Amino acid sequence: MSDEELIRRFVNRGDEGAFRALYARHSPAVYGLLRRLAGPAVSDADDALQDAWLRAATRLSSFRGESAFRTWLTGIALNCLRERWRRAQRIDERGDVRPLETHAPHNDHAVDVAEVLDTLSADHREVLVLHDVEGYTHEEIAGALGIEAGTSKSRLSRARQLFRERWQQAPVAGAKS
Amino acid sequence: MSDDFHLSDEERARLERMKRELIPPAHIEAEAIETLRRRGLIRDSRPGWMTAAILATALAAGLVAALFVYRQMADHAPLNTPEFVLLLYAGDETGAAPSRRDEYLAWARSIAAQGTTISGLELVEPSEQIAVLPDNPGSATPAQPRGFFVVRVRDLAEAQRIAATCPHLRYGGQIVLRRAVS
Fold first, then answer.
1. How far lies A74's CA from each of A27, A68, A171, B84, in Å?
2. Among the four residues A131, B43, B72, B100, which has the most C-beta atoms within 10 Å?
3. Which of B22, B99, B115, B141 is nearest to A15 (CA)?
4. Chain A: closest CA distance from residue B13 (Å)
5. Closest residue by Cα to residue A101 from A116, A122, A80, A86
6. Chain A residue nearest residue B76, CA to CA
């Protein structure tokens, strides 16, 4: 059954089965994204996913299908994650200038891609993950994050640059193999 | 600043390999559904007359009808349904290729699509990161599961039916089912 039909059933009848089907179809991808963005803060990803579904369910009646349902849901989930970060004042702590070397816990084992991503600011990490990991277009990123496509492009360029610099700075030589 | 900073093929491949779907913990779906039900966004799909008929039948026919009602309610009350843990132990083989992970994920999604709440995690190789406490030299390390799924089903028989379809068995692995304390 298509997303549109499931949405119709949920909105018109409050159909639990339709909600479960939508949840089963889209949650693994959205949750995978949230986990990559949240890094070690797993509970942030958990809470953001639940917040996103609750918010999406409330707004489904106004979903017009201009974008794919998953893109729409992803945008909501990203906002929920950002709100959690904002509440915890983590955005500021994830400043763009934080050098990799301050990651003391990471210095004793091979640094992986996820850890390098975690050193980027939230803005840069989001765009890099959405574009280069998830395969979103700049237009889709713009829609999901509420920014201009041009902003997405320039953020991606800077994020890639920082990713390369920090990967090359990673303290373990094996990380660059 | 230029808007077209490009990564090398190797860097791009490294990032693309991060793309992975993850099954969220089961409680997220269950709690979301309970909240939506409280808010009136999820409604009982049975018409009022059907609920009344079921209750009347239950009163009239006793245990059999009561069980039927219980089964219907269980479908809509996942928080009251027991949880079973499927502990996945490896056979002779080791490691898990991405395609195999995809296979397990597809299986879990198919179980979820049938209305069963399921979550799970794959554990890293025991040789990579494992700690045993207390660390008594000379004592044998207990057998290590490679991962687990948690399913919310009515009974052990249903959990067994689900476990029997898990791709882990085709890879020579073994699955141990345990009921969680509710």
1. 10, 10, 34, 31
2. A131
3. B115
4. 9
5. A116
6. A16
Q: Which amino acid is at A146?
A: G
State chain A's mean pLDDT as an integer: 81
Q: Using the beta-carbon criterion (under 8 Å), do A19 and B115 form an inter-chain contact?
A: no
CA distance B155 to chain A (A): 21
- CB pairs < 8 Å spanning A and B: 118
pLDDT digits (tens, 9 = 90+) for B130-153: 677 777 767 777 778 888 999 988
Q: In what order do the strands lie in the sheet with B83-89?
A: B117-122, B147-152, B83-89, B174-179
CA distance A168 to chain B (A): 11
pLDDT in tens, B12-43: 888 887 787 888 888 889 889 999 998 888 88
* All structural domains of chain A: 3-88 (1.10.1740.10), 113-169 (1.10.10.10)
In this structure, are residues A162 and A96 in contact, taking their beta carbons and an 8 Å threshold? Answer: yes
Does the distance separating the beta carbons of B28 and A49 come in below 8 Å? yes
Q: Quick check: A54 contacting B, CB < 8 Å?
A: yes
- Whole-angstrom CA distances from B146 to A130, B53, B170 are 30, 48, 15
How far apart (Å, rounded) are the C-alpha atoms in residues A17 and B29?
12
ipTM of the complex: 0.76
Angle between helices A138-145 and A149-169 (to 10 degrees): 100
Residues of A in contact with B28 (CB under 8 A): 27, 46, 49-50, 53
Q: Which of B114, B119, B126, B93 is nearest to B104 (CA)?
A: B119
pTM of the complete model: 0.59
